[in-house]
Amino acid sequence: MSLRRFIARRGTPAELYSDQGTNFKAAEKELHETFDGLSLELQQLLAKQKIAFHFNPPAAPHFGGAWEREIRSVKSALYTVVGAQSVSEEVLHTVLLEVEAILNTKPLGYTSSNIADLDAITPNILLMGRLDGALPQVVYNKSEGLSRRRWRQCQVLVDHFWSRFIRYYLPTLQHRQKWHTTTVELAVDTVVLLMDPQLPRALWPVGRVIKVHQGADGRVRSADVRIKGKIYTRPVARLIILPAIPDSEEETDSVAVQAEKTA
């Protein structure tokens, strides 16, 4: 049923990566048995819609990498936000979909073009081919979390999730080891994502560094970032470097060659 819901919402995937959950294994087995039982003509017609299942080894959730880490962060935030309070199925369903929308608007990288406004690539662009079209949010007092008005309750829960997610998950995207060895520092023209807990949820300000400020030890401690014509000065702890996504195969090859030279 989960697979059917996913296909109904997003379309049939070409490949599916997952752990070896019994529900996923059973779905793969049933689909294979059904496909093998079809006539040759039907198999040829449906071959284009066949899903390739890829399973992680048993007892190895770390093979999931990035998506498993993000799932853990979402679960931790939801456990804390919802806790033991009683919520209706409708409220919980709405909260989960709002959380899904937040994650699908998070920038993954940017297109390496020379236009003034940076084009941040988000999951929504990959899924829908366009920018996020979410409705403006409504902000309610935290006391409304226990309200009998389910709309207000779900909005307060989503606000709580956003505040915890941006506080505990986004900092993990920064690679900030101890400076025992020389590391690549923030530089001018670097594209960054600005973390600001004061902003409304699902807002991901992306800008370009125009100036860096060094501390007494010569390390970059803060930077000026231009975002949509405005300049913000923020410490490096609030800035996440976004990778460039090449526009063409030639640019992809040049980036790979440059990375190989650097290594």
TrEMBL record:
<dbReference type="InterPro" id="IPR012337">
    <property type="entry name" value="RNaseH-like_sf"/>
</dbReference>
<protein>
    <recommendedName>
        <fullName>Integrase catalytic domain-containing protein</fullName>
    </recommendedName>
</protein>
<dbReference type="InterPro" id="IPR040676">
    <property type="entry name" value="DUF5641"/>
</dbReference>
<dbReference type="InterPro" id="IPR001584">
    <property type="entry name" value="Integrase_cat-core"/>
</dbReference>
<dbReference type="InterPro" id="IPR036397">
    <property type="entry name" value="RNaseH_sf"/>
</dbReference>
<feature type="domain" description="Integrase catalytic">
    <location>
        <begin position="1"/>
        <end position="131"/>
    </location>
</feature>
<dbReference type="Pfam" id="PF18701">
    <property type="entry name" value="DUF5641"/>
</dbReference>
